[in-house]
Amino acid sequence: MKHEKDWYKDLVIYQIYPRSFKDGNHDGIGDLKGMIEKLDYLQELGINAVWMSPVFASPNVDNGYDISDYTAIMEEFGTMEDWDAFRDGAHARGIAIIMDLVLNHSSDKHLWFQESRKSRTNPYSDYYIWRAPAADGGAPNGWKSVFGGSAWEYVPERGQYYLHFFAKEQPDLNWDNPETKEKIFDIIRFWNAKGVDGYRIDAISYLDKGLDGRADPHAQFGTAACVNLEGTHRYIREMVAKTMTPDHLMSVGEVNINNDQDAINYSSAASEEFNMAIPFVPPIVEIRTWSPEKMKRDLHHNYELLKADGWWARFLSNHDKPRQVSLYGNDTTYREASAKMLAAYLHTLPGTPFVYQGEELGMTNVAYPSIEDYDDIDTRNAYHTMIEEEITPQEALAEAQRISRDNARTPMQWDDSAYGGFSDHTPWLGVNPNYKEINAASQMADDSSVFRFYQKLISLRKEHPVMAHGDLHLCCPEEGPVIAYTRSYQEETLLAVHNFSQDVQKFQYAGTSLQPDTPVLLSNYPEQDICPECEVLTLKPYETVIFQLS
To answer: Which residues make beta-bridge pairs with 131?
Structure first.
């Protein structure tokens, strides 16, 4: 597919987590054949781009985010021929392909690392980050890994430690080595030649480790010590300029944003880094800190920060977060209403919306009864850390259930047959037991379903450029659970109102009059309760309304 400059601004991107999307070869694991089977489903939904989490060869220590061969397909997902068939099928339907690249680290099973660990003189010696032991023979410094334990691992063959910010099976690549960097660029060129339309780059904020004294060796985590150093931005600019910009390929980085300058660096056109950024927030932080009031503050601030020269990646869910209806909405009494409200909120914001698989059905968190039922390395490590801190097993399990990345990774619920129609074989991860009530087949047969609501939203976004390109003006009180704003572009103005609460709320629009006959583009309730005399909208639990003002 050929692309014009800024084409990504009109995308609606659907994220597929391949292991959990659809099993096409009957082994209990999602794969490329299954993804091909569901291309018509994606086309019917209306999305025009797919971001697939990594499908590269991997031993799966971190569910594919530990890559052992960047130019091969993981055997459990199929073959390169299967990938080609998916690409061709997607492109024939006008769906762009966004690949998920992990460039901060590789798997320890990668040829580069297998050679690098043998000696200090082999051709791959400097592809990774090696340091001598400290004076006492221990790790070079006290940095911890994100997944627990030291960020350094000793290799007797070299008499040195290698750095791994994540699992010990994920050694960090040495971007300071020009040869390593060029080999990484060659990987991107390989996939460019295969017809990829863009890239989501994982954990990209830590390329420059600052081990020359710029990073604090006494910090608890290496990721915190070296995040967003100047070298990282320099490497990103070079990578994007050499491998993505010439063909207008889309780029989005999963990054850490700690201040305004970080956001500008990663997301403004002038910085010449990414088209947009996905800020990473640990699930436990998001769970404990989010509120409608915070959403309003962040929405206003981030819009003003980037509106002149940047773009926004809009998302509420992904493979690292709890299910959005369980976190921001109500996954019991008002599941459908809140799922629709969250969808309307996301798709009426400026920027490019990302739909994570299953959110278009209102899929919810799962609560497995035992820690042994969880696959996620981060969940298991967090649980065992809590046990070591003398938290009771019951409390530790409850916390693990809340924060687990497996909440988002349960198999897709296609129908009410065994295993939710995901597979005819026992799945690699347990299906959420609510699949009989929440599944694609039943929703596609129901014009009032969450799926059909998403479909209408995506269609509206294509019909009304104001939803992607219009300016944004908040028009709601700073306090309270109602988020409301106008979007204006050329001759069109929309008013979007969302009740982030199970309680009835009042909203009064201070602009032009809001009357019972004001046109409604979309709502999750059949009628709106507007007082004609006082121009007050009474919002039902989790009600969302998109008004056409002009």
So the answer is: 161
Q: Any catalytic annotation for residue 254?
A: yes
Q: What does pTM read for this prediction?
A: 0.96
Which of 82, 254, 336, 376 does the annotation list as catalytic?
Answer: 254
Q: Which residues of the chain have pLDDT under 70?
A: none
Question: 468-548 belongs to which CATH class?
Answer: mainly beta
d(CA 207, CA 163): 12
Query: Rounded to an integer, what distance in angstroms lies between the CA atom of residue 198 and that of residue 118?
Result: 35
Taking the C-alpha atoms of residue 421 and residue 23, their distance in angstroms, rounded to an integer, is 9
| Phi-psi domain of 357 (left: phi exceeds 0; alpha: psi -120 through 50; beta: other) | beta
Phi, psi (deg, nearest 5) at residue 232 = -60, -45
Q: pLDDT tens-digit profile of 274-307? A: 999 999 998 889 999 999 999 999 999 999 999 9
Smallest CA-to-CA distance from 382 within 366, 365, 405 is with 405
Of the listed 172, 202, 208, 320, which one is catalytic?
Answer: 202
pLDDT at 513: 78
For the segment(s) 105-172, the CATH number from 3.90.400.10, 1.25.40.10, 3.10.310.50, 3.40.50.720 is: 3.90.400.10
- Residue 66 appears among annotated catalytic residues: no
In a 10 Å sphere around its CB, with 0-12 CB exposed, 13-18 middle and 19+ buried, how is residue 245 labelled?
middle
Which tokens in the block code for residue 391?
Answer: 């938290």
Annotate 384-399 with DSSP letters as a single string: HHHHHTT--HHHHHHH
